[in-house]
Prior knowledge:
This protein is α/β, with parallel strands linked by helices. The protein has two domains: 11-70, Multidrug-efflux Transporter Regulator, Chain: A, Domain 2 (Orthogonal Bundle), CATH 1.10.1660; 83-238, Mannitol-specific EII, Chain A. The protein has helices at residues 11-15, 20-27, 31-39, 56-65, 72-76, 89-96, 107-117, 126-139, 196-209, 213-220, 225-238; strands at residues 46-48, 51-53, 98-102, 143-145, 148-149, 165-175, 185-192.
Amino acid sequence: MKEKAADPGGLFAYYMKLSVKDAALFLSVSPETVYRWVKQEEIPYHTVNDQLRFNRAELLEWATARNLEVSPDLFAQHESVPSASLPTVSQALTAGGIAYGVPGGSQAEVLHKVVGLMKLPAEVDRDYLYQVLLAREGLGSTGIGDGIAIPHVRNPLVLHVTQPSITLCFLASPIDFHALDGHPVNTLFTLISPTVKTHLHLLSWLSYALRNPAFKEAVKRQAPCEELMTRLAAAEAVIGH
Length: 241
């Protein structure tokens, strides 16, 4: 899974700081395991001056898609922006909203409907956002298992939004999202961020919140908005947000 060092928005250059030791720490595995994943082309990596390096965003996406436990604090500890100044998942979901019964018979159709429902500034090009989300899925499914996917833009800088949002959409019918567990997807958390730091912050905390049994159970049965928000707030409190 070696990737090309091409990133016009600067995400690659800014976040490609992790060594094998760092990656092992972030993923709570041994360096030997990381080397094995590299040898097997399982994990996204880069070679810089004959040294293995890992991109923070790619590593977090990879871990999230495989339901690996990665502490959000590990991705924030080297950043200059304190966690207290970053938005909570609850705040982002409040901004993005919740929709039920979203139609669509394919991944492309559903993403098109989702983009149409999102609460976006008038200056955001929805057609462009749709194409970017579709292209991101082409790099690897954002399905994280159990019928849930987290579509997002790998480089949020291209969107020119000023406020982060997460739009939760429950689908009218499950669709094939090429998730690693092979199960169809019926729930999408579409994440939009103004900065890379906010993107990593929300993606990591959302993946953690979805490990909370009460919140995940509410999501799986498509609970009413008020209940979902209450359980999400409780999940954030448990994990110390």
